[in-house]
Amino acid sequence: MKKVVLSITLVFLMAFSVFANDNELWEKSTLNQVMKRGVLRVGMEAGYMPFEIKNKQGEIIGFDVDIAKLMAKEMGVKLELVNTAWDGIIPALLTKKFDIIMSGMTITPQRNLQINFADPVVVVGQTILIRKELAGEVDSYRDLNDPKYTIATKLGVTADFATKKYMPKAKLKLFETEPEAAMEVINGKADAFVYDLPYCAIFYAQHKKQLAFLDEPFTYEPLAWAVRKGDPDFINWLNNFLAQIKGDGRYDMIYKKWFESDAWLEQVQ
């Protein structure tokens, strides 16, 4: 009888311990902190069309912004956008300057060592804009792997890494922002601009007279929201939220607005 009582006691203690650990995990969860605070703080770098960019009034708009607004609404909290330089965006997340990164961030093994990602929101890849005169001479990234060509892109992003990996022989010019790098081609100071498909497609639409567009992606890059490690409750909520808006049509409405229409360009030109 004593053995039975002891066994029951041990099972009870183990169950209580698991409950206590789970409850402690929830108390520390970012999601719980957001609910208590009443504000969802989203980190992003305003400059990556069409994900996030400033309009003529200086407000941040874009695909990620519309999704963030919807996310905050579903949580029943206010939204605060925290504009952060790209090279400091992961450290800012880790030091709790904001709750989540929603900024067209590509999932990479290296980043995943520091932070966790929710399910991919959009899948893109690297594409290339070239000087109009090079059309026919340059048909793919392989043709650019030559010391006679100069390639421009943004510092510290996957386009930077992809260029170094696939076109190591070319000269590489790195810039702090996407527009600076892309304008090098327009101004004749670079032969090509390497970057994600959505950005290149939009920039090409604005400068068709000066550019040719190699629009077949040569890399596979899933973009996702990033959060701090050790937060399964937040990841669970984010994945279910994404599945829900993809299932009920709200995601498609936002996607079409920013990726299948250029009407929004009037707000930023």
From TrEMBL:
InterPro entries listed in its UniProt record: Iontro_rcpt_C, SBP_3_CS, Solute-binding_3/MltF_N
Listed GO MF terms: ligand-gated monoatomic ion channel activity
PROSITE patterns linked to this entry: SBP_BACTERIAL_3
UniProt keyword annotations, A-Z: Signal
GO cellular component: a single term: membrane
Family matches, as SMART domains: PBPb, PBPe
Signal peptide positions on this chain: 1-20
Domain Ionotropic glutamate receptor C-terminal: 39-261
Keyword Signal: yes
Cell compartment(s), UniProt: Cell envelope
Source superkingdom: Bacteria
Solute-binding protein family 3/N-terminal domain location: 39-262
Pfam families per the UniProt record, alphabetical: SBP_bac_3
Family named by the database record: Belongs to the bacterial solute-binding protein 3 family.
Protein name: ABC-type transporter, periplasmic subunit family 3
